[in-house]
Amino acid sequence: MYRRALVRPPSASMGGCISDHPMREQFSLELARRQHAAYVEALREIGLDVVELTPEPTLPDSCFVEDTAVVHESRALICRPRPPSRRAEVDAVEEVLAEHLHIRRATPPATIEGGDVIHFTERLVCGVSSRTTLDGVRQMEEWLCVRVDTVRDPAMFHLKSDVTAVSDELVIGTRPRIDDAVFDGLEKIVVPPEEAYAANTLAINGRVLVASGHPVTAARLRDAGLDVIELDMSEFEKCSGALTCLSILF
């Protein structure tokens, strides 16, 4: 049961974030701020205590806090993002998490980002990707004292762009990624190719957040008996971000 969410609102520099999305030049900071506020309100309505960090004008990607730490039970690994421009983001996150959790920093030359880590109660599934290395996975497994299975594809951005966990028994994602052997034995909701962005869902205490504008995916989640909250994520999509990227749950 999650009790808290750590978030950081978008800053004025967010238009300069790391993104190759074709609509990046049409990014609206004003709309992103409204969308983030709606996201935070949804977290509060679910019952989470939301801890908000101050926007960081010198770090355009800093609202995507998920990449800065991985939490499991009473421990947190403070990550080492692949882009050097993002590494200063971890300092403020570490300061807050240290008030609640036992922490350790990932050490060079490893890189690891939270967007690659899918959380289950008894294990984690981590992408070995363009952002996370095997050494990063090893350090995470050792510190968090939990089994970590891997999905390996050096061309992959983040694993959770393709698959997310709705519960310990159910995952949602796109093919072919959701058919990886690490997900064998689980129930699966397959997201149609035209709604691939909706594969990144955020499950919190029995409710599921999904990006709006993806009716097939939302219907499949509801057909599975889930309580679904749809949120507009258009501006974060333009910056290569999604629902899970905007918070650290603990």
Uncertain runs are none
For CATH, the homologous superfamily is named as L-arginine/glycine Amidinotransferase, Chain A
- What class do helices, strands and sheet pairing give? alpha/beta
- Based on CA atoms alone, the radius of gyration comes out at 17 Å
- Main sheet? 3 strands, mixed
CATH topology: L-arginine/glycine Amidinotransferase, Chain A
Average pLDDT rating: 97
For the largest beta sheet, what order do the strands appear in spatially? 2-1-15
Report the CATH architecture: 5-stranded Propeller
Cα shape: globular
Protein model, in words:
This protein starts with a strand and ends with a strand. The mean pLDDT is 97. The protein has 250 residues and is α/β, with parallel strands linked by helices. Helix content is 20%, strand content 24%. It has a single domain (4-249), classed as 5-stranded Propeller (L-arginine/glycine Amidinotransferase, Chain A). It has helices at residues 29-46, 90-97, 134-144, 215-223, 234-238; strands at residues 4-7, 49-52, 69-72, 75-78, 102-105, 117-119, 123-128, 147-152, 163-165, 170-173, 187-190, 202-204, 207-211, 227-231, 248-249.
Q: Can you lay out the helices and strands and say which pair or pack?
A:
Layout: E1 4-7, H1 29-46, E2 49-52, E3 69-72, E4 75-78, H2 90-97, E5 102-105, E6 117-119, E7 123-128, H3 134-144, E8 147-152, E9 163-165, E10 170-173, E11 187-190, E12 202-204, E13 207-211, H4 215-223, E14 227-231, H5 234-238, E15 248-249
Parallel strand pairs: 1-2, 4-5, 7-8, 10-11, 13-14
Antiparallel strand pairs: 1-15, 3-4, 6-7, 9-10, 12-13
